[in-house]
Structure formats: structure tokens, C-alpha cells
Amino acid sequence: MYTLLVEVYLGVPFGYEPNAELKKLLEDFRDMVNFCIDYAYKRRITSYAKLRGGVYEEWKRRWDYSTHYCHSACKIALAMLKKHRKNKKEGKPEARKLFMQLDPQLYRFYGDKIRISVRPRQFLFIYLRFGEYQRKFIDAWREGKLKTGEITVNEDKIIIPFKREVDLQNPSDWIAIDINESNVTAVSSNPHVLRIEHELRTVHTTYFIIRRRIQKLARYKPKTAERLLRKYSDREKNKTKDICHKISKLIVEFSKEYGFGILMEDLKGIRKRIKRGRRMNRRLHSWNFRRLQFYIEYKAKLNGLPVEYVNPRGTSSLCPVCGGRLAPNGHRLLKCPRCGYENDRDLIAGINMLRMRGAPLPLKAINEDSNRAIRDGTGSKC
Ligand SMILES: [Zn+2]
To answer: I need a labelling partner for 213 at 20 to 30 A (CA). Which of 67, 219, 290, 301 fits?
Structure first.
């Protein structure tokens, strides 16, 4: 047994009551960032200490805010310049959107509101809007289980990162998660199977068709079309996120119940596995698989479960017993022509992942008695 301390961060968005004072602060902060960009760009400065030392006097003359704003503006300016250089763009970048980042020294979190330091002994209170999802984090924070990190404030949202130190201990067993178009299948070597049928593909197809219809409208009513596109794209995103939250919640609860560590496929290879030519679904694959894995990983870590990634090469095409190439054998089944091993194709992917991690081959009876199908039903997030 070993103990591993890991810090887990999750950025949680909160709405807030608009506030003229805060708007002014955001506008001033944007000016500060552009001022720092200009200064660093002209003198080819890339180090924080040099920029901070160089701008400070002039910054103090122009803005009389707490000195921390100068740190933050310098940091953001350098990050923007670095990104600009990396993308090989000409000239200098410009901050256009209203946003600022505040480290824990510049604000205080009260659960339902945030107090921002503006100048020494001068504060600004922001009242947060939140739902059930955010409330869980606030409650855990009140109980001392979570700490807040550097917050991001923009025109309509405040993103608060909650962090927690978790103990990742050696799990008793591993469970391998195979994510595919119609279901998520989790297999452990002891053997347990959890299969969650999901509608991610249906959701994507439905909204794809809606979007195509709206695009026809764009010729006559471009403004209406634009508004509708935005509306339906938000709806799709919310629906997708909701499904991913539910699936990841089920998987993590199941793993926790049995003390499983979680194995997932390293996603760099996942696109190769999906048949080419399905233009419509490709976005779903790369993007939603990543989202789902991300949700599973952070929920697992919040619950103290370790997560590891394995190379997915051959997981769905090779025999877990002898390594031979599998051939389709009827609906959803794969069979090894060399040794005769046969199993459900989604289970085979998971079994191969377990084998890669050194687990013994699960019993053949895996299909018959331990199949548990859980449909995407009710359930709250996180
Ligand atoms: Zn075989």
C-alpha cells in the first residue's frame, strides 16, 4: 500500500448580480493588461520580474488599485504575448474581452458572495447566483473539504476553482471503461460488468438536423437564424453535459462501491477506432469522449479513486487470450479464429485493457450472470 496526495481542481461557474463598480474595475483591468502588453512588447520583455519592475511606477500613477492588480495584469499580459508568439502572429495581442483573474489574496469567498479588494481597505461585494450543482461545492467548502483557488471574473460569470487534496491509495481491483457510440461499458477482472446505454449520438444527430434546417433559413432571415443557432447549440451542449455527468456519476459510484481503480483508453488513439466517413459523428467522438473521460477522472479523484490510462491499440481487435486477430461473429460478438475465444465486443475492449494492466483473464461466465444494465435515468450532477 502507498499513499499518494494529489490536488484536484475543478472550475465551477457562478452567475452574479451585475454591478457598475465591478464593470468599471473590469474595464480598468483590461486597460492595465493592454498597457502591460504594450510595455513588454516594445522592450521585448518575457520575464515577469522585469515587466513588473518596469511598469510599476507608471502603473501606480495611472491606477490607484491594490498592487496585486499589477501582478495579475503583468501575468496575463505575458501569457497573452507568449501565446501570440507561439501562434506566430504579427504585432502584439490586445485584450478585448472583459475579464480578470484574482488570486486568493485579492478576494474572500463567503459561499453566497465574494468580497473583492479594490484598494487598501476598500472592498466590493459580489452576490453570487447558483443552483444545486454549485451548492454542493459551497457545502463541501463550508465543511472545510475544499479550498478555492485563483478566480476568473468576466462580464457575466465568476469561475471559482475548488481544490481538494485527495489520497489515492492502491485499489483492490481495476475496472476498465470502454466508451463507444451507444454505450459505456465498464468491466472489472473479478468480474463485474456495468453497461450504461446513452443517447449522446442521438442528441448530436437531432441537433445536427435542426442546425441544417436553420441554415436554410439564414438566406432570408440571417438574424433569426443566428439567434436560433445559438439557442440550439446551447441546448445541445447542456443536454450533452448532463448525460456525461450522469454516466460519470454512475461509473464512479459503482467503482467506489467495490474499491476499483479506473482504467481508460488514452484518447489519442480513439479516433482511429471509429469508422471513417461519418462526418456528422466525428465531432461527437473526439469531443464528448474527452468530456466524459474528464468528468469520470475528476469525480474519481474527488472520491479518492486512482485513474490510469492505457494505450488503446488493438484493444478492440485482438484476442485477450492468445493475441490473435478477432473476427465478427454475429450481432455484437467477436470470435478468435485461433483459440475459439468469443465475447461481446464492448467487453473485449475492457478485458484487453485489464490484461494490459496485468490482470488475470476474467471468467468466461462474465456475460451471463453479472450483466447490469443501467439506463440513463434520473440523478443529479456530480
Ligand atoms: Zn485467441
So the answer is: 290
